[in-house]
TrEMBL record:
The lineage of its organism: Eukaryota, Metazoa, Chordata, Craniata, Vertebrata. Belongs to the annexin family. SMART domains: ANX. PANTHER family: ANNEXIN (PTHR10502), ANNEXIN A3 (PTHR10502:SF25). A pair of annexin repeats may form one binding site for calcium and phospholipid. Keywords: Annexin, Calcium, Calcium/phospholipid-binding, Repeat. The keyword Calcium applies. The keyword Calcium applies. It comes from the Eukaryota. InterPro entries: Annexin, Annexin_repeat, Annexin_repeat_CS, Annexin_sf, ANX3. This is Annexin.
Length: 338
């Protein structure tokens, strides 16, 4: 897997990345949407003797998140109960997690995943990195607000108490949701930043991590792409190689993830999905989270990158790695075998 990102140019995503955001999902709004009919179908599937899982899967995976929120509201009005609570009561395991995750507002889902990563005796840094490295400013601000509303505590405070050092500093900068999101770039500034990164890393005895953090966590995607091009000219190697050579641990993982998301977000998620199913056991939490969170954003592009990178489809890999209703639900989200 180390060779996947050796040539960043080969994995460069579309230049209109910001314009395309949200248009490349596998799940779209259902054209013949009827919330009352969906509530009736779900009630019948849940309230009968035994749950009719196929009805639950088809209804939830074939509606957009906005439509699911309407279903939740109408379900509450019709039954006096919370649909998510009913799903938790009737379903189980990874299948339950997918259905419940799809029913949640995306910001609330991200907040729940972050809370789970911070909970317990150890922090799951990989989850925090995946979410904060890949979300837009608006998504970050919404998930922070959802976290505050659910936990009556600031996500900034909770992160500060769990992580520290340069890794903590970088995460808190990303959490501010203030990355420059302009679609223009300045070629001269790219040269200046590339030299600054080179001087702070390869050219310096000891790495100036703060310079890497400041540039990688604040500059716009088009600006950083140009900076990476200039960096390769200055250093004769790509920025990922340099970060891996100069840093270690969580900070290395975070900055590499940031670079990969700048270069090609779908390829980053394709790699994460591959690793979640590689080896002796499946990382269901990561697999589910990515399938849910990218289902209305760029899962079509993730599928394409997956096949390009690994030679077989995401659909076929899911089918070979998991089973039952959990598998069926993920394949419905995946949406195709190409």
């Amino acid at each position: 897997m180390a060779s996947v990102w050796d040539d960043l140019d080969a994995y460069l995503g579309p230049t209109d990345l910001l314009k395309k955001a949200g248009q490349r999902g596998t799940i779209k709004a259902y054209s013949n949407f009827n919330a009352a009919a969906d509530v009736k179908a779900l009630r019948s599937a849940i309230e009968g003797i035994g749950t009719t899982e196929s009805v639950v899967i088809d209804t939830i995976t074939q509606r957009s998140n906005a439509q699911r929120q309407i279903i939740c509201k109408e379900y509450k009005g019709a039954t006096g109960r919370n649909l998510i609570d009913d799903l938790k009561g009737d379903l189980g395991g990874d299948f339950e997690n997918v259905m419940v995750g799809l029913m949640m507002h995306p910001a609330a889902f991200d907040a729940k995943e972050i809370k789970g990563a911070l909970k317990g005796s150890g922090t799951t840094e990989s989850t925090l990195i995946e979410i904060l490295a890949s979300r837009t400013n608006l998504q970050i601000k919404e998930l922070a607000a959802a976290y505050q509303a659910e936990n009556q505590r600031s996500l900034t405070d909770d992160l500060t108490s769990d992580i520290s050092g340069d890794f903590g500093k970088a995460m808190l900068i990303l959490l501010q949701g203030k990355r420059d999101e302009s679609i223009n770039f300045n070629q001269e500034q790219a040269k200046i930043d590339a030299k600054a990164l080179h001087d702070a890393g390869e050219k310096k005895w000891g790495t100036d991590e703060s310079k890497f953090i400041d540039i990688l966590c604040k500059k716009s995607i088009p600006q950083l792409r140009k900076t990476f091009e200039e960096y390769k000219i200055v250093s004769k190697t790509n920025i990922v190689e340099s970060i891996k050579g100069e840093m270690s641990g969580n900070l290395e993982d975070l900055l590499v993830a940031v670079v990969k998301c700048v270069v090609n977000t779908p390829a980053y998620f394709a790699e994460r999905l591959y690793k979640s199913m590689k080896g002796g056991g499946t990382d269901e939490a990561t697999l589910s989270r990515i399938m849910i969170s990218r289902s209305e954003i760029d899962l079509l592009d993730i599928r394409a990158e997956y096949k390009k990178l690994f030679g077989y489809s995401l659909h076929s890999n899911i089918k070979s790695e998991v089973s039952g209703d959990y598998c069926t639900s993920l394949l419905k989200i995946c949406g195709g075998d190409d």
